[in-house]
Fold this protein.
Amino acid sequence: MERLGLADRRHLLDVGGGSGGLAIAACELCPDLMATVLELPSITPITETIVGESGVSDRVGVVEHNVVESPPPTSCDVAVFRAVLQVLPHDDARQTVINVGEMIESGGIMCILSRVLQDSRLEPEQTVAQNLVFLNIYDGGQAYTVGEHREWLEAAGFPEFDMFTRPDGRSIITATKP
């Protein structure tokens, strides 16, 4: 939350937010923040139930939307992808980043929380091992490289990004829209 400076943000878009837990937690920590969870039709009833039971349901909306097919129906000043891109085939992941990038306001942030491989695809070791799971479970899904993320972000209008890799191998990529 500190890395994103959410206290200064108005609207968070949680892309493929599943249960809505990230959006709920962000709104609990930032009393002025509004959030929208974008999810597929098969998941939104679950998300709506969990959000409805939260103490911030008046500030967290749930929208059924496929971001691979088109940009989200709402703009935001921060968009978060948590464990989303690696379940998609390469071209779908790229298009998702581009579509969401269209709806991020100037000065807004895109944040990707994921397992990211170095361009050699040989490290970090934990991500190489986790990638075997992705390759076996998801049709076309995989851990993507730093270079692939760079290309997607540039195509979405984010020329620069920062990346921090945690000791457990998970990465946090942040990019600000000019």
Summary: The mean pLDDT is 95.
